[in-house]
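Narrative summary of target 7.
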Amino acid sequence: MIHSIASILLYAGGPINRFEIILFSLAAGGVILVAICWGIVEEWIERTRGRNWPTVSAVIDIVSVAFIEDDGIPSPKADLVDSHYKATLTYSYNNPEQQMGDYSRDFANEDDAKAWANSYKGENIKVHVDPRDPTRSVLRKEDL
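Modeled conformation, tokenized:
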């Protein structure tokens, strides 16, 4: 990154003027704004996805916890800027054939992730199934 900025400055042929500083600041601000808005839109889609689909009964068959290593890229989720544990609930349902889906949640602590996941093992739940494609389903946070 520093090398890129240095090459731009050398290519420009002189010191940075006020206009260039303002232009660079606006560009950086625009990138940050887009990242924030993207995170908000993703969260909204996740909250509303499948809410009007019909529900069917499902059973949580498999629970797992995986360590997710920090890849150095800042996460749009402010609470997960470092490595974390992803707890996944895998459920099955019949509509009309047996289908599977999963739901994940991130945790900072492995014990918390395991405790949360294990508390749902074998539980009966309601999942929302896409009426146009019964292989697509959503387990919504409020249905747990």
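The chain has two domains: 2-47, 55-143.
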